[in-house]
Design goal:
It comes from Cohnella hashimotonis. With 470 residues, the chain is α/β, with parallel strands linked by helices. 56% of the residues lie in helices and 12% in strands. A five-stranded parallel beta sheet has the order 2-1-3-4-5, sandwiched between helices. It has a five-stranded mixed beta sheet with strand order 7-8-6-9-10.
């Protein structure tokens, strides 16, 4: 049953609105009333209504201000304005401030009933999915909102199941590992990546089957450590995610768990890579890559380390003209290379080419050519774009394209694409009800947590906070 709060400084108006329709027939229950905007804000905090019917002209704080301030609260609330002032300006302002409807006094029973039907449908469509609630909880920095989301899990009894101990399992691919019927949650964390929170005994029972035959459509399964505190879930999922991607290192599908990593050895090798690039020493660079390959073959490194090797090597090559080639997710790495050894071979070939290249000046081009590039990026920013790809398509040096982006737009290629993508995400969050993970995939980000970090960096809010403030 949805909760409604009625706000008007004239008590007879509230009573007539109460008696006008059968609220419960439409799925609502009037939980309280208030005589001013200030009183209404206090009641909202106390009663947590789903819908607030409010007058416009009231003492202390009018209805429009109540809507504006109410939309800033962490709780998503639908506002309906009721007023005797049949003026377009009021309706326009109310809708601009986020009101769901505008009704005139004296009330019409059919009109109010119609509003309730639409509100009920909207509220039910936005009903919190437990998995989405947990995703928001894991990504929510505001303690007040986090407590509210945790309360939702407690009401469903799911917080207690987590407290009893769960093991995160991450599966990569389009298939689903069998034997997880009792999973506490299925969390879609990427376009082809799902995390499951399962009891330890269920994981152990299902694991034997997975190891005997990897499920169809699954390329990697990662099993994390058992946790009993919801605040540890995100890190545990990240560890399982890392393990699932170990198939990129192993060069085969399988079931993997986190192991101790040989990070000090890798750091020493990367120091040698940097020195070799600076000295343009090809043999030393080849030796460093060979030692890195051995560390991966021994199973002492993960895809996170492959990610580090790729981006650090490209940063070393920056001074030699290789720019804007960074990757931003594990998925991108696995799409570009079959496995880590193919990645190392590619890096070695690129490094060798840049070490041998001359210092000839970059080719010049006309602005019309850059405009064609800019239009292509603007049209296709949701796709997997890179300067190397643009270089091959438009027959231009990637470094020069990078310089043109900075000169003509005032932004790097990466920042330009990110701004377009996050701008589209804001629009989808404002105007639609798609889940945050679906929106991330739509605009080109396959990793949920990377998308939410980038979104907050550029907007100052998490996607959920932004949606609630619309």
């Amino acid at each position: 049953m949805h909760k409604a709060l009625l706000v008007d400084d004239e008590s007879w108006v509230v009573e007539s609105l109460k008696d006008l329709v059968d609220w419960e027939r439409y799925g609502f229950r009037v939980v309280g009333q208030a005589a001013s905007g200030e009183e209404a804000l206090a009641a909202i905090g106390r009663l947590r209504p789903d819908v607030v019917f409010t007058d416009i002209r009231m003492p202390e704080m009018n209805g429009l201000e109540l809507i504006r301030r109410g939309r800033e609260l962490p709780e998503p609330i639908q506002f309906v304005v009721v007023s005797g002032y049949a003026e377009f300006a009021y309706a326009q302002k109310a809708l601009a401030y986020g009101a769901a409807a505008y009704c005139l006094k004296p009330f019409d029973e059919i009109e109010i009933a119609g509003v309730l039907v639409k509100l009920a449908a909207k509220l039910e469509a936005r009903g919190a999915d437990p998995a989405e609630t947990l995703l928001r909880l894991l990504d929510e920095p505001d303690p007040a909102v986090a407590e509210r989301l945790l309360g939702e899990l407690r009401e469903r009894g799911l917080a207690a199941r987590i407290a009893a101990g769960v093991v995160p399992v991450v599966a990569i691919g389009g298939g689903e590992p069998p034997g997880l019927g009792g999973a506490v949650f299925r969390l879609k964390t990427g376009a082809s990546k799902t995390a499951y929170l399962v009891g330890a005994s269920e994981v152990q029972a299902a694991r034997e089957g997975w190891e005997a035959e990897i499920p169809d459509g699954v390329t990697g399964i990662g099993i994390g450590r058992q946790v009993a505190d919801w605040q540890e879930i995100r890190d545990a999922i990240a560890e399982a995610d890392l393990a699932a991607h170990q198939r990129f290192v192993a060069g085969r599908s399988g079931v993997f768990e986190p192991v101790p990593w040989q990070e000090e050895a890798l750091n020493a090798c990367m120091l040698d890579v940097g020195n070799a690039v600076e000295d343009k020493n090809g043999p030393a660079l080849s030796d460093a890559f060979a030692r890195i390959g051995s560390l991966f073959r021994e199973g002492g490194l993960s895809i996170r380390h492959a990610f580090q090797v790729y981006n650090m090597t490209n940063s070393f090559l920056f001074k030699l003209g290789r720019t804007e080639t960074a990757l931003y997710s594990y998925e991108q790495l696995t799409h570009v290379f079959a496995d880590v050894h193919a990645m190392l071979a590619g890096l070695a070939a690129v490094s060798s080419r840049y070490l041998k290249q001359s210092d000839a000046p970059l080719p010049e081009t006309r602005n019309q050519t850059f405009n064609a590039i800019l239009q292509h990026v603007t049209r296709h920013y949701r796709e997997d774009l890179s300067l190397q790809g643009l270089s091959e398509q438009f027959f231009m040096n990637p470094s020069y394209i990078s310089q043109l982006f900075k000169k003509e737009t005032g932004e790097t290629f990466t920042a330009y694409v990110a701004r377009l993508r996050i701008g589209q995400a804001c629009e989808l969050l404002r105007e639609g009800d798609d889940s945050v993970q679906d929106i991330a995939a739509t605009i080109g980000y396959q990793d949920y947590f990377y998308f939410t970090r980038l979104f907050k960096k550029l907007t100052g809010k998490t996607p959920s906070q932004y949606r609630e403030s619309r």
